[in-house]
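hey
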């Protein structure tokens, strides 16, 4: 059953008094401003995040799904940092020269801060050897001085230095003396001592007048320490790393370039990436950032896959990377790392990843799903008010009056076109608050009022409405033919939704139909010239099915009918015009005129039921502005699906016009109801295989019968309206 909507049905019934406060400053006492931002509307996502960060097991990486602006990064990052601070400190990673296999450096994990200590101690050890050993050995090997006693003394010195190094590492933790890593370091020191004693002449040459400083530095470089990962600055917790611009090298490390004459040891040129730096903690990445790297995006994903599978990372040069390559014999061993990877993506990005790399996707067992909306309730309204109050304090903005809180809530509900739900894309709310505050401050006020919010929204609309304004002017000037008065046969105003990315708006488009005797059925001219998309073509096929089923007695129909979107040059997509197309066709077929002031939107199914469509608010407002510019007289309005009633959040200007009777909004659930509204004549009921005379379908049936006879006899026919 069709019915006309009243003003109260066109927006949510939320009043300033419902917040039970004068302005948002009254909420500050109950808000802990030092605490992280609350997870408004994302309770399940928070639970999933906390659970995911509590499970440090292979395969339990975290996938965060949600749209940009939902807080998916900032909220998760707050929890990550807090959780990592409570975990044990991650170790430092140093690389040492492996004397028995120089091509495979020796990795050793030390307590946080000890890596830097060891590096400094080894540098001091090298300087000490260069200072103390030459005097003991004499100025030159050529002197053939007996160095036996000197070697014994040097060996004692090295032993003492090695003991000092070990004691330095276990000074504050005696249990570390029995750790595998320290035992590995002790074996390294033993090998270092042996190497130094076997190459003692190097120190003898160090003070010679003709000494080769490059050779000496190259040799001593093997005793240095490559501090790959330094966690000394964060000794109280595990690392939490967010790579804002992930590249192959930033994630996996690489080799520092060196000149051909460089004396730097190969193992000292190795550099860690964020995967190694995140050992013991978390690494947060955006999937989009990886995919956007056209040069190495696929390599990054494949390398991450191998790391997640093996738990080890092989530092290597990126394939095809510029710069000098390492010698082919240098192949450092894979380094172990325990990292919880947090990947942020939209649902579309993740589904594409699943299709392309399903094995990689399986390593993300914890899914954190940021919902796009939450139920509208008094509790939700209070949470949004609290969020606004927090932002006002954070950015030192004027606080928000209760009537402006209503405007902000309506804005968030309008974003998803739903009276029963609120958008959780709070970055949009934050930006609107900042824009409203500028207007408030410009007028020297202390509170943001509803008028300031409206002014901010109007200013935003003015900045983006050039395409709509140009189209509206072309309609008002008559360049685009739209008639909003009188009645016409076979002609109707459909409503289109134009989405330009940064803005969207609605606009009417004339749909016209012509009918003849024939056997080609319903032809859509736009479709014939490939200007329609699959969804629109589907709607047209449904229309054809309904038409055949409605006139079963005459099927197959002796009908050739053409439909066209007039002055449409950019293509047609979507099925929301299928009702308007049907009305235009039935008007042409029956000869019954359609009121031109009433525009139509709605999709139909095979049973004639009118289904919900998108962009209903933009379509209504766009048509209203056209009528407003051309002259409202109370006969204009729109027909929408009754299933879209919960999606109505219309502008105050439209609501006011409806309240004054200057504009009308009708809701229908069946195409027959819409046809009756548009013509003022009943659609018609089927009685014993025929439709009632004096109805739209009755006239259409009469003309279809005449079409059949005319087609069989090849004679023209004159259509007669049932009102004549």
């Amino acid at each position: 059953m069709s019915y006309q909507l009243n003003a109260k049905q066109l927006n949510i019934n939320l009043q300033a008094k419902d917040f039970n406060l004068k302005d948002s400053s009254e909420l500050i006492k109950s808000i802990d401003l030092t605490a992280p931002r609350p997870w408004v509307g994302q309770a399940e996502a928070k639970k999933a995040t906390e659970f995911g960060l509590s499970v440090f097991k292979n395969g339990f990486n975290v996938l965060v799904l949600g749209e940009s602006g939902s807080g998916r990064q900032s909220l998760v990052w707050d929890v990550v940092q807090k959780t990592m601070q409570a975990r044990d400190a991650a170790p430092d990673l140093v690389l040492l020269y492996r004397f028995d296999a120089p091509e495979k450096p020796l990795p050793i994990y030390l307590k946080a801060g000890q890596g830097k200590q060891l590096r400094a101690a080894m540098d001091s050890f090298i300087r000490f050897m260069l200072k103390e050993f030459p005097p003991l050995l004499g100025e030159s090997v050529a002197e053939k001085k007996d160095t036996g006693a000197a070697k014994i003394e040097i060996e004692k010195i090295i032993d003492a230095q090695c003991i000092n190094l070990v004691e330095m590492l276990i000074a504050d933790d005696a249990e570390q003396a029995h750790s595998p890593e320290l035992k590995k370091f002790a074996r390294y020191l033993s090998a270092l001592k042996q190497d130094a004693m076997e190459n003692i002449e190097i120190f003898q040459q160090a003070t010679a007048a003709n000494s080769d400083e490059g050779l000496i530095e190259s040799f001593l470089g093997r005793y240095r320490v490559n501090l790959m990962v330094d966690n000394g600055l964060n000794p109280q917790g595990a690392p939490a790393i967010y790579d804002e611009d992930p590249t192959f090298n930033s994630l996996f490390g690489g080799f520092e370039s060196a000149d051909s004459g460089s004396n730097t040891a190969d193992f000292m040129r190795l550099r860690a990436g964020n995967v190694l730096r995140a050992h013991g903690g978390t690494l947060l990445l955006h999937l989009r950032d990886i995919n956007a790297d056209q040069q190495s995006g696929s390599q990054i994903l494949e390398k991450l896959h191998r790391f997640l599978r093996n738990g080890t990372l092989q530092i290597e040069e990126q394939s095809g990377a510029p710069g000098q390559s390492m010698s082919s014999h240098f192949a450092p061993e894979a380094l172990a790392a325990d990292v919880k990877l947090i990947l942020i993506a939209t649902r579309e990005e993740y589904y594409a990843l699943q299709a392309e790399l399903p094995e990689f996707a399986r390593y993300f067992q914890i899914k954190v799903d940021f919902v796009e909306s939450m139920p509208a309730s008094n509790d939700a309204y209070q949470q949004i008010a609290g969020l606004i109050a927090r932002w006002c304090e954070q950015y030192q903005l004027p606080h928000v009056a209760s009537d402006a809180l209503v405007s902000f809530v309506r804005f968030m509900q309008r974003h998803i076109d739903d009276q029963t739900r609120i958008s959780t894309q709070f970055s949009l709310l934050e930006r609107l608050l900042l824009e409203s505050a500028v207007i408030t401050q410009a007028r020297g006020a202390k509170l943001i009022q509803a008028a300031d919010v409206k002014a901010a929204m109007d200013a935003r609309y003015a900045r983006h409405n050039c395409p709509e304004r140009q189209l509206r002017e072309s309609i008002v000037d008559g360049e685009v033919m739209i008639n909003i008065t009188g009645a016409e046969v076979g002609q109707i105003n459909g409503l289109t939704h134009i989405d330009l990315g940064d803005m969207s708006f609605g606009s009417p488009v004339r749909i016209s139909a012509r009918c003849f005797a024939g056997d080609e059925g319903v032809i859509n001219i736009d479709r014939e010239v490939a200007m329609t998309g699959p969804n629109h073509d589907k709607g047209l096929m449904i229309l054809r099915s309904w038409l055949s089923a409605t006139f079963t007695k005459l099927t197959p129909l002796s009908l050739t009918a053409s439909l066209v979107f007039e002055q449409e040059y950019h293509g047609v997509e979507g099925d929301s015009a299928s009702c308007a197309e049907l009305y235009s066709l039935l008007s042409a077929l029956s000869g019954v005129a359609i009121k031109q002031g009433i525009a139509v939107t709605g999709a139909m199914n095979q049973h004639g039921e009118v289904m919900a469509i998108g962009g209903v608010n933009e379509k209504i407002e766009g048509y209203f502005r056209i009528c407003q510019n051309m002259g409202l007289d109370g006969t204009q309005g729109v027909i929408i699906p009754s299933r879209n009633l919960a999606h109505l959040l219309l502008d105050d200007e439209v609501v006011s016009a409806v309240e004054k009777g200057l504009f009308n909004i009708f809701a229908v659930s069946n195409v027959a109801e819409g046809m009756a509204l548009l013509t003022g004549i009943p659609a018609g009921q089927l009685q014993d295989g025929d439709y009632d005379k004096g109805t739209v379908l009755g006239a259409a049936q009469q003309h279809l019968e005449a079409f059949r006879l005319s087609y069989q006899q090849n004679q023209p026919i004159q259509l007669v309206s049932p009102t004549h």
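The CA atoms of residues 77 and 615 lie 34 Å apart. Confidence is low (pLDDT under 50) at residues 320-328.
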